[in-house]
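Hi R.,

Here's the chain you asked about this morning:
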Amino acid sequence: MGQYSIKEVETLSGVKAHTLRIWEERYAFLRPKRTNTNIRYYNDEQLRLLLNVATLNRHGMKISKIAGLQKSDLVNEVLKVYESTTQPDVLLDSLVHAMLDFSEKRFERTLSAAVIKLGFEDAFTRLVFPFLIRTGVLWATGSLRVVQEHFMSNLIRRKICTAIDGLYVEPNRKSRKFVLFLPERETHELLLLFIEYIIRRHNHEVTYLGCSIPFNELSYVEKELKPDFLITYQTVAAEEMSFSDYLKLLSTTFPSCKILIAGSKFKEVQLKLPSNCIPIQSVEDLLKSIC
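And here is the predicted structure, written out as tokens:
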């Protein structure tokens, strides 16, 4: 069973810690447990309940009314909201629920509804990636289980791969060659797969190399493929060199190629970027760079 601090619950639910404390004082529906040192914590059941309460509250129902609902009525009201809204915060709550419950059905229902109403790209930029950001810090600190991360990541990966498979690229004079890869020790590829989808949708050729590519293999890629663009990102510190040195070496290896970079590490060196390296922080940045 999970054990979450008030700060972690705030991150997962989007409800401020100050508000949580007020709800605890005024209403009986939320009663956190206490450690031997009197520090409050919440278990999975309490987190699920809070997500339901937050969903209805964000959808306009007063907290006093929510507090008076029976558990079955509370769940039914939440299901009605999930089926009728495109409000990102509400759908985020649903994805967190799916993760906690290992519910593929809830995940499919939530994401499919979002894709129908928003389109594939908007559903991912407004829902899926904010969800990954919301939970990513907790995964990194061990507050959420690895199996929960893998469960959701694999469901999301499957959705992106299916969307990619549905695209057909017919190269023309405007098409460019892209190589996508992640450096060694970098294994989280969901963003890179989504970038592949975006690029293919704009009728460009993509060679997708995947995760943890040794640097000494890249010179061969440059020689054989001669790409117009190289796209990568880094969130994990490299063992052998700084990210700044890595980019300099990458720039030298691909002197005639535009190198698009993302991830937390590039922020450390964004004032020292080689001339052919371009930072991207959004889909809009990506499209501006490739058009």
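One quick note: The mean pLDDT is 85.

Cheers,
M.
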